[in-house]
Design a protein that fits this description.
The protein is α/β, with parallel strands linked by helices. It folds into 2 domains: 144 residues, no CATH class; 105 residues, Double Stranded RNA Binding Domain (2-Layer Sandwich). It contains 9 helices and 9 strands. Strands 3-2-4-7-8 form a 5-stranded mixed sheet, covered by helices on one side. Strands 1-9 form a two-stranded antiparallel sheet. Strands 5-6 form a two-stranded antiparallel sheet. Strand 7 and strand 8 form a beta hairpin.
């Protein structure tokens, strides 16, 4: 959730019931999730030096991640990368269209005079288009495809960027895009935390200390969630709504700590069911904000994991 969205939710729903924290979750790749330790081969769509260099940089980054094996001879997947780049700067005919006019003063022993100073400034711009196609080597079936476009320009009045500077920045962006698209990573995600939960749980969560949350939960959560729900429906908390709501928030935070360290499909489905049960039971404004926020995040992960090849 973006900062603007968080602010809007806080204004509409009342910011006193939740606190927003950027928690670190181990999350699946944002585009395609290949099987763990898959062997991959990177190939340039054309035999051009700039594409070959890009492919080598990406292959080195993949090999260093420890999540894949880069194998030229016996890969499971074949990743074909294409790239088109272009750079332009003004020639003598077009530079006049970037004319800068200003009033200047020239001083001399008699006082000087003002005059109109005209300067023609060069500009530059560049664009890159990168395509990525993933094939299964077993049957050469297409598995996934995406592309990305980058563009930038320089209209400054000083030294304009060169082709090398543009392409260097584009390469950094492309590698970052590949990492986000293919690699499992820790990502910080804005998360709603109900304020009525146990203080020790909230403090550990604010430190992104999932293990600390689980340790603190051993003190303040006396029973498994299923047993707690059975007690609720048996009427154990009918005269103590405040304690019930606090316990629900504690279970919610414990579930966040479990989610932070894993995106195992079975675990995500279990946590999803737990958050639905909490949302159906609670009357707390904080949990009514927090649970939908977390359910959306878990559903997004499960959707990404459906691309597991």
């Amino acid at each position: 959730m973006t900062g603007a969205a968080v602010l809007l939710v806080s204004i509409l729903c009342g910011c006193s019931s939740v606190k927003w924290e950027r928690l670190s979750y181990v999350t699946p790749a944002n585009e395609i999730n290949l099987k763990k330790k898959a062997a991959v081969k990177f190939t340039a769509a054309e035999n051009r030096s700039e594409i070959n260099m890009l492919v080598k940089l990406i292959a080195d980054r993949f090999a260093g991640s420890g999540q894949f094996q880069v194998d030229e001879k016996n890969p499971d997947y074949w990743i074909v990368i294409g790239s088109e780049r272009n750079f332009r700067t003004d020639d003598p005919k077009t530079v006049v269209f970037n004319r800068h006019v200003e009033k200047a003063r020239q001083s001399n022993q008699y006082g000087g005079h003002e005059f109109i100073k005209v300067t023609n400034h060069q500009t530059s711009s560049a664009a890159a288009f990168v395509t990525v196609a993933v094939y299964s080597v077993r049957d050469l079936a297409p598995v996934y495809y995406f592309d990305t476009v980058m563009y930038d320009s320089d209209f400054s009045t000083g030294n304009i960027r060169s082709q090398k500077e543009y392409y260097g920045e584009f390469t950094r962006q492309i590698i970052a895009k590949f990492q986000d698209s293919f690699l499992v990573r820790n990502r910080r995600i804005e998360t709603a935390i109900p304020k009525n939960a146990d203080t020790a749980l909230k403090d550990a969560l604010s430190r992104n200390d999932a293990a600390g949350v689980i340790t603190a939960a051993e003190r303040c959560i006396p029973e498994p969630f299923d047993q707690f729900m059975s007690d609720v429906y048996a009427g154990k908390y009918k005269d103590n709504d405040s304690l019930m709501e606090t316990r629900l928030s504690d279970y919610y935070i414990l579930a966040l700590a479990q989610e932070m360290g894993s995106f195992d499909i079975a675990l995500l489905k279990k946590l999803h069911a737990q958050h639905v049960a909490i949302l159906n039971l609670t009357e707390s404004r904080g949990l009514r904000i927090a649970c939908p926020n977390t359910l959306a995040r878990i559903e997004s992960k499960l959707k990404l994991l459906q691309t597991l090849k």
